[in-house]
Amino acid sequence: MSNAGVHKILTFQSSCIAWDDVPPIMSNRRLNAACWTDGGTTATNALSVAQRHAGKLALMSLIRNEIDAWIFDLDNTLYPAGSDLFPQISARMGRFIADRFGLGDEAARVLQKQLFRSHGTTMRGLMVEHGVDPKLFMDFVHDIDLSGLEPAVALAAALAALPGRKFVFTNGSRWHADRVLRHLGLAEHMTGVFDIADAEFIPKPHPAGYRTLIERFAIEPKRAVMVEDMARNLAPAAALGMVTVLVHNDSDWALDGAEGDWVQHRTDDLAGWLAALPAGI
């Protein structure tokens, strides 16, 4: 594969993006090398800097001409994973389980993690294995303090400048999503929210919810971008033909699947990454 000024016929497999005569572009973003082919042969060697970032140039072109829908996860994606929101939610999940089953804190924590890993969400596990009312559970765990979360001024500006419709696709409740979006100052930029109830309480990454989402909002997957902090949740999106973006999160459960070829773009600064995309080349 040539490292010279123009790179011919590079094809990104999962999203079916193809283009000819792509000039190199410099950026601090990373693209997964395992996803590229050159003349049908997988590129196993490290890509050059220009090749790694040709993907961003292609995405810029898609934004101008084709991207119609931006689909964002909520928790730890539209606000920093280092905030205290998700620790609050996790603690309240543990409290709910402890109270429900008469367990100590450590035993409740163990059960919570077991349910999460077995069913995709703690709530789904409680529903399937213990018949818990999901609304009762979500109302309890999402009753959290948002005062420590700063408004997302830079992200709001980036969303306002971005062409296309914007959606939130969350394994949480609509009430929680609406509350967090208002607090962050992002609600006015969202076309719609698709929550766990809309997915019939079947959480990501089960493909059923993705199909319902695109049908409800008339989304053409090949004209859509999905942004997530949990790598495994990007796999069904990539399989449908969406461009995928992973927002960095250090948690083990978020990194599960992060080396898969369904992760096409990565960032630890979503606002900055989005703000750069509509700019002229």
Quick structural gist:
The chain is α/β, with parallel strands linked by helices and 281 residues long.
Characterize the structure shown:
The protein is α/β, with parallel strands linked by helices. Helices cover 40% and strands 13% of the residues. It has twelve helices and ten strands. The protein has a six-stranded parallel sheet, with helices on one face. A four-stranded antiparallel sheet has the order 2-1-3-4, with no helix packed on it. A hairpin with a 4-residue loop joins β1 (10-12) and β2 (17-19). α4 crosses α5 (122-130) and α7 packs parallel to α12. 38% of the residues are buried. The model is unreliable at 1-52 (pLDDT under 50).
Distance between the termini: 24 Å
What is the H/E string?
Answer: EEEEHHEHHHHHEHEHEHEHEH
Structural class: alpha/beta
**Could you give a short account of the major beta sheet?**
6 strands, parallel
Share of residues in strands = 5-15%
**Radius of gyration, whole Å:** 20 Å
Provide a count of the helices.
12
Query: Looking at the structure, what is the overall shape?
Result: globular
The low-pLDDT segments are: 1-52
What portion of residues is helical?
25-40%
How many extended strands? 10
Q: What is the average per-residue confidence, as pLDDT, rounded to a whole number? A: 79
Placed side by side, the strands forming the largest sheet appear as 7-6-5-8-9-10
